[in-house]
Amino acid sequence: MTPTPLWLKLAIAALVAWGVGYVSLLALVGPEAGATGRFERAVEAEAEAVVGTMDRLSFDAESLARVRSDPTLLSHGKAIYAANCASCHHNDGRGTVTAPNLTDNAWIAATTAMDVLTITEQGIADRGMPAWKGRLGYNDLIIVSGYVTSLHDTNVEGGHRPEGEVVERLE
Questions:
Q1: pTM recorded for the entire structure
Q2: Would you tell me which of 14, 22, 71, 131 could form a disulfide with 123, CB atoms 3.0–4.6 Å apart?
């Protein structure tokens, strides 16, 4: 049997020493001291800023109006929309062949802001609109619905043709 080379023994000893030192340091300073911890703290701080403004949201038209008038909530709604809705309704809400334009004033299934919230929550299966209840948190459902109602009658250029009945105001 060939003896283990000295360089390999030293490499293994160095790795073991490094591992013991790393685990000891991690136990002293905690995992939140690294770059990942700093990132997670930044995300938590931003979420807390949003949560602090939305702790009083309810499943009602007043909360939807509040989202439309609060720049922080509206920005959060836009981010939720971009992550979950834009793939069908387009980034600016102009709609596509498979999903209606959210920026005109002709709406297929909604005549009130609460209708938008209910549709977001429950979906419309025969139109291909998924139910977001269970996929989005309670406040996020309200916030993204408030953002969608803010798009009403903004008439983005190049929007998909109007469908449904004309709704003057979504309140």
A1: 0.70
A2: 131
